[in-house]
Every structure is written in C-alpha cells, then in structure tokens.
C-alpha cells in the first residue's frame, strides 16, 4: 500500500498528517524548548491480530508485551514476531463493559513475579469488581489471590486501570457502577482512585485513612505516572465533558455534580458545588464526547517532538490523541489527533522503552465494526 497522507486537526499550533501506513509530523515552536523540530515520518505495522477486545498492554522486563483481553485471557506477546503466548485464563463475568481489565507487573518482577489485575465477577449481591494477583512461574499463572473485593460493578462504568507508582504502591481506578451518587460517598470504593500496598491494604498516608486516594470520578479508563511522579487519568463523561485530569491526593473531582470545568454549563449549582467542595478542574475536556481510554506518557528521544506529551486512545472517536504539556505539567499547550478512524476503536496504548508506541484495538467489544483480523496490536515508530 502506498503511503497516504492527510491533514489532521491540531490545536492550537501544531500540524500533523497521519495515515494507516505513514504519518508526517511537523513540530513547531510549541515543542519543548521552543526549537523547531524536523519533520518525522511515522510508520505503522500490525504486531498481532485475531485478538478479542484488547484491554491492557504492559511492557515486561522480559522484553515482551503483557496483554489482557476482556474475556479473561492474559498473554505474552513477542513484539518482534507477533507470537501470542497465553499464560493464564481468569474467570470473569464479561457483562457489557465488564470483564478482565487493567494489568500491572510487580516492580521487581524478575524476583517477585506477581501480576496484578482488576476484573468483574458476579456474587449474590450482583455485579462486582475486584483486584487480584497471580504469581508467574515462567510458564503459567498460579492460583488467584484476592486483594480487594466487593467493589460495586455494573454492565457499565467499571474503571479499571491498574498501575504501580514510583512509590511502589498500587493505584486502581474504579467507575461509579452506573450510580453517580456513589462517587461522592467516601465509604464506597466505586467512583474513586484507590491507593494500596502491594498486598491490597490501604496505603500508609492515604488522605482518608482508607483505600481511597481521590473521589468524584465517573468512569476513569486510563492512568499513567509522568517521570516526575505526577499522576494523570482519562475519564468518560456522560453525553458531555470527557476529561483528562491531574490527580491530587484527597481531592474531589466533582462527579456527578460537576461536568468538566466549573463553568456552570449544567446550571448555577455546578459553580456553587465547586466552590463549596474545592473541586479540581480537568486539564482538558471534550464535548461532544470522545470516550478516552488507555493513557501513556511520552518522554523518548525516538520522536523528539512528542516529548513531554500524554498519549491516549479513544473508543468513540477511534483516534490516538496527543496532549503536549507545559513544563510544569499543569496545563495542555496543544492537542493533536492521529490515525483518525484508521483502526477503529482504540482502548490501550503503550510506550516501549525504545520509544515505539503500541496501540490495542477494541473492535470486538460489542460496539465496534470488527474486520476479519481484529482485534489487533499496532506499532507506531519512525520510518
């Protein structure tokens, strides 16, 4: 296929052309340091195909991509050959958006080979989510060890990304389980970001002497730490105001009383709630909604113009977004859309140690239009 180039939208000062096979990136004075970067041509190639609703991609210390699929399969993917080697099958309830979701590897995986995942299950009380871990013996996963259970769940709004922070603590996003009021209830684990020890206990220093780190979240489906330790998430809004948030311990992110910024777009009560509850406004928000999902931080010299950027996948918008951040990481200086509609619904994004970007499609999740080789893992790197 000959390279195809087309103009994509960029705000406010960045121009980007992209295609399924190649993309041309023009970086101007909005880049870090103010220096103009040369044009960089990007290529994409399919690493693995024939998958089913790729939910998470994590780079392992073994040089393999560790992957979850919503139906419950955990696999290692060879990024060179594309070979997919299943290592375990988690018993999950794949109900609507629920199933096997986020994955993280122990920071000392070579000597402490623990995998941490979040998944949906069914109990007598109904649909629930939990955080569990497995020990990897070099070939397969051992038995499941439950760390946190009975997190309210639903066919929608389950979260659930899992990340181990630079403080060697476990962070988990949870959705509001389709009950907006629960997000403001600090006695409930839904609609929150949880901060746990690696055996599932409340982390020392948590703001409410519980597992809760922040609250007022609707459905956060992406989470990443920047190199300086700043935590960012993506979050689904209702029919308006999808968000990217910068997370601060103990803070209220407003849902369901606030949609996006404290601008009164849903009524005067929104501004009053923000003032009374010290609500944190998002770095960026989108109406109409785009359904932001997996989130990564780019800080590699492989694509210099992408440094100090957030990359996130979108489901509804079927696009990879890049948000260039200010030097202090507290604001967005430009937004760029890439591969708009080229691969369908995108849920997972990963930046490998060499600076290559990997995205996972989600076209078999019941809301997409899968091709014969979906779902796929696709690599993006300079030509």
Explain the overall architecture.
The protein is mainly β. It has a single domain, classed as Neuraminidase (6 Propeller), CATH 2.120.10. It is 3% helix and 41% strand. It has 1 helix and 28 strands. A 7-stranded antiparallel sheet has the order 1-3-4-5-28-27-26, with no helix packed on it. Strands 2-25-24-23-22 form a 5-stranded antiparallel sheet, with no helix packed on it. A hairpin with an 8-residue loop joins β10 (100-105) and β11. The protein is globular. The two termini are 15 Å apart. The model is unreliable at 1-38 (pLDDT under 50).
What is the first-to-last residue Cα distance?
Answer: 15 Å
The amount of beta strand, in percent, is 35-45%
* CATH topology type: Neuraminidase
Q: Which sheet architecture does the biggest sheet show?
A: 7 strands, antiparallel
Number of domains: 1
Radius of gyration: 20 Å
Broad structural category: mainly beta
Number of strand elements: 28
Q: Which strand order does the major sheet show?
A: 1-3-4-5-28-27-26
Proper CATH architecture: 6 Propeller
């Amino acid at each position: 296929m000959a390279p195809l180039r087309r103009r994509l939208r960029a705000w406010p000062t960045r121009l980007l052309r992209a295609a399924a096979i190649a993309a041309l990136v023009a970086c101007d004075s909005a880049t870090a340091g103010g220096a103009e970067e040369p044009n960089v041509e990007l290529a994409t190639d399919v690493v693995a195909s024939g998958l089913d609703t790729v939910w998470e991609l994590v780079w392992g210390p073994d040089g393999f991509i560790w992957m979850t699929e919503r139906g419950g399969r955990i696999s290692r993917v060879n990024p060179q050959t594309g070979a997919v080697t299943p290592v375990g099958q988690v018993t999950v309830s794949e109900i609507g958006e629920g199933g096997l979701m986020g994955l993280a590897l122990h920071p000392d995986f070579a000597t402490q080979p623990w995998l941490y995942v979040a998944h949906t299950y069914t109990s007598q009380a109904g649909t629930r989510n939990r955080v569990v871990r497995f020990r990897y013996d070099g070939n397969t996963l051992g038995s499941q060890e439950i760390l946190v259970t009975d997190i309210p769940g639903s066919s929608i709004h389950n979260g659930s990304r899992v990340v181990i922070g630079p403080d060697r603590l476990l962070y988990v996003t949870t959705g509001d389980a389709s009950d907006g009021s629960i997000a403001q209830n600090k006695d409930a684990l839904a609609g929150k970001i949880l901060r746990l020890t690696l055996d599932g206990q409340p982390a020392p220093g948590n703001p409410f002497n519980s597992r809760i780190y922040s609250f007022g979240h609707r459905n956060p489906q992406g989470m990443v730490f920047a190199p300086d330790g700043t935590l960012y998430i993506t979050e689904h809004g209702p029919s308006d105001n999808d968000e990217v948030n910068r997370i601060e311990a103990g803070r209220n992110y407003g849902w369901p009383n606030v949609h996006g910024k404290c601008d009164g777009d849903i009524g005067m009560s929104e501004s009053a709630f923000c003032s009374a509850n010290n609500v944190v406004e998002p770095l960026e928000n989108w109406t109409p909604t785009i359904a932001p999902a997996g989130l990564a931080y780019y800080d590699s010299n492989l694509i210099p113009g992408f440094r100090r950027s957030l990359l996130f996948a979108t489901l509804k918008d079927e696009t990879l977004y890049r948000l260039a951040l200010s030097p202090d990481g507290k604001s967005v200086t430009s937004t760029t859309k890439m591969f708009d509609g080229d691969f369908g619904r995108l849920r997972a994004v990963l930046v490998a140690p060499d600076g290559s970007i990997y995205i996972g499609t989600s076209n078999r999740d019941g809301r997409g239009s899968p091709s014969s080789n979906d779902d796929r893992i696709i690599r993006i790197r300079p030509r």
